[in-house]
Design brief:
Distance between the termini: 49 Å
CATH superfamily of the largest domain: Carbonic anhydrase
Radius of gyration: 18 Å
CATH topology of the largest domain: Beta-carbonic Anhydrase, Chain A
Number of helices: 10
Shape: globular
CATH architecture of the largest domain: 3-Layer(aba) Sandwich
Strand order of the largest sheet: 2-1-3-4-5-6
Largest sheet: 6 strands, mixed
CATH class of the largest domain: Alpha Beta
Number of domains: 2
Order of helices and strands: HHEHEHEHHHHHEEEH
Length: 215
């Protein structure tokens, strides 16, 4: 706790003062452009990775950057997505996975999380991604396939997003764009899903294709 307390004191004395006008503006409302869905992993800092300021990202975090398919059962994830899209009017949604993801390791090895019933149930939302990886590797599936599982999970959660009425309506009118990213903790690289090549490519390459498609 000492680190947190010291950090607050430093923030109030330095960072807050340097961004005083920004915080005065944010005190009366927010208008983020991006809903950023990522993992709860302590090694992931969305604002640091994207070099964004407070107010730029509407952030939703959970184990495994999972988006449960839409249902009539209300949950915090569904409510946050609905609010971000319908009320805040975000124009883009990013689902960002990451390397060395404990949730994906758990999904690949159910026995490791069998004593954690809520975790096990939650990871069931990644079952289709696991099925795809298993189909390709069968009994040879191992820890070396964690990145492949992470990428498949990002794609699956993008599909789940499309089942949410608030997202589906915006997709139908072209008012929102979905993005799949994977962040490499060790190298700092971000790879993005390119639908044309059906693979994850460096963000510099993906952005080039994205900008050409938007032109």
């Amino acid at each position: 706790m000492q680190k947190l307390i010291d950090g607050i004191a430093k923030f109030q004395a330095k960072d807050y003062q340097e961004r005083l006008e920004l915080f005065k503006t944010l005190a009366t409302g927010q208008s983020p452009e991006v809903l950023f869905i990522t993992c709860s992993d302590s090694r992931i800092d969305p604002n640091l990775i994207t070099q964004t300021e407070p107010g730029d990202l509407f952030i939703l975090r959970n184990a495994g950057n999972i988006v449960p398919p839409h249902s009539m059962v209300t949950g915090g994830n569904t409510a946050s997505i609905e609010f971000g899209v319908q009320v805040l009017g975000v124009s883009d949604i990013v689902v960002c996975g990451h390397t060395d993801c404990g949730a994906m390791k758990g999904a690949m090895n159910p026995d490791a999380v069998k004593t954690l019933p809520h975790v096990s149930n939650w990871l069931g939302h990644s079952a289709a991604a696991l099925a795809r990886v298993k189909a390709r590797h069968g009994d040879k599936m191992c820890a070396d396939h964690t990145l492949e599982m992470t990428e498949e999970n990002v794609l699956l959660q993008l599909h789940h997003l499309e089942t949410h009425p608030s997202v589906a309506s915006k997709l139908a009118t072209g008012d929102i764009t979905l993005h799949g990213w994977v962040y490499d903790i060790e190298t700092g690289e971000v790879n993005c899903y390119d639908a044309k090549s059906n693979k994850f490519v460096p963000i510099q390459d993906w952005y080039k294709n994205y900008l050409e498609a938007k032109a």
